[in-house]
Amino acid sequence: MTALGLPRWATPLALVGLVFVVGPVAALLVQADWPRLPAALATPAALSALGLTLVTALVSTAACVLLGLPAALALARCPPRAATWLRAVGLAPLVLPPMVSGVALLYWLGRRGLLGRVLALGGITLPFTTAAVVVAQTFVALPFLVVSAEGALRAVGDGYARAAASLGAAPSRVFATVTWPLLAPALRGGVVLCFARALGEFGATALFAGNLPGHTQTMPLAIYTAFNGGGVGQDVAVALSVVLIAVSIALLAGSGALAPRAEGGRGARTGTARLGRGRRTRDRAGAARLGGVDGTA
User: Fold this and answer.
1) pLDDT reading at 41 higher than 90
2) Rounded to whole angstroms, what are the CA distances from 256 to 14, 119, 264?
3) In Å, how far from its chain's centre is CA 144?
4) Nearest Cα to 169, choosing from 178, 156, 158, 181?
5) For residue 259, what pLDDT is reported?
6) Per-residue pLDDT tens over the stretch 99-127
7) Kindly report the CA angle at 186 between 183 and 191, in degrees rounded to 5?
8) What pTM value is reported for the model?
9) Which residues of 217-251 are buried (b: 16+ CB within 10 A; e: fewer)?
10) Which of 33, 95, 238, 246 is deepest in the core (most CB within 10 A)?
11) What does CATH list as the number for 42-257?
C-alpha cells in the first residue's frame, strides 16, 4: 500500500506547531535541577499536595463516570432538538473560564448560594473543604466524559439495543448486556481525559475550595503559590511540575496504546475475514434450502 505524503506547505507548519508545544515542556525538563528533585518531592508539603491531588482526581473521575454515562445516554436517545439545547447547557464547563466556574459553584453551593443555603440548614458546608475540591474537579471534567460517551453511543448505534428490547429485555438489562460491552472500549479515552483534567484543575478549585495546605492545596495550587512567593519552595514546585508532566504523558500514551485499532489494522482485517466467511456460509445454507424448496415444488 502506498504511503500518503504531506503537502509541501504542511511540513514546516507541522514542525513549528510541534516545537511550539514541545518546547516549553522540554525547557522545563532540561533546566530542572534533577539531583535535587527527589529531596524536594520527599518534603511534607510536596507529598501532601501530591497525595491530595491523586485522591481527589480519582474520586472525581469515578463521579464523572457515574454521572456522565446516564447523561450521555439521555443526550443520545432524546429528540435531536432537545439534545441540542441540553448539550449546549450541559457542556458549558468545557468553554467556561475556570474562574467563572469557581464563581458559579460559589453562587450555587456557597453558604449563601441557591443550594448552599439549604445544605447549611442541615449543617453541611462545602466551600473550602476537601469535598469542594472534588466538586470543582467533577464540574470541569464531567463534560469530557459526556462528550466521549455520547460520541461512542452514536457511533455504535442503537440497532442491537433495539433488538434486545424487542425480545423483552428491560432497559437496565439492555444497558448491561448490550450497550455497555459496545461502549466500554471507547470510554477509555474519555476516562483518561477526565482524570487528566481533574489532575490539572486550578481556577475553579482556587475560588471554590481555597488554597489550604493539607486540605485543599492541590499540585497546581502549590505550584502557583510557590512561584508567587509563598507556600512550598520553587524546588518543590518544579518537582511537582515534572510529576504532572510525567503523569500526563503516561496517561496519554496509555490511552493511545489501549485505543481501538484503525480499520486498516490487523484486527479489522481479521474481523472482516471472519464476517466474510460467516456470510458465505449463510449464503450457501440459504441456497441449499432454496434448492430444496424448488426441488419439492
Assistant:
1) no
2) 20, 42, 16
3) 5
4) 178
5) 54
6) 999 999 999 999 889 999 999 998 999 99
7) 105
8) 0.80
9) bbbbbbbbbbeeeebbeebbbbbbbbbbeebbeeb
10) 238
11) 1.10.3720.10
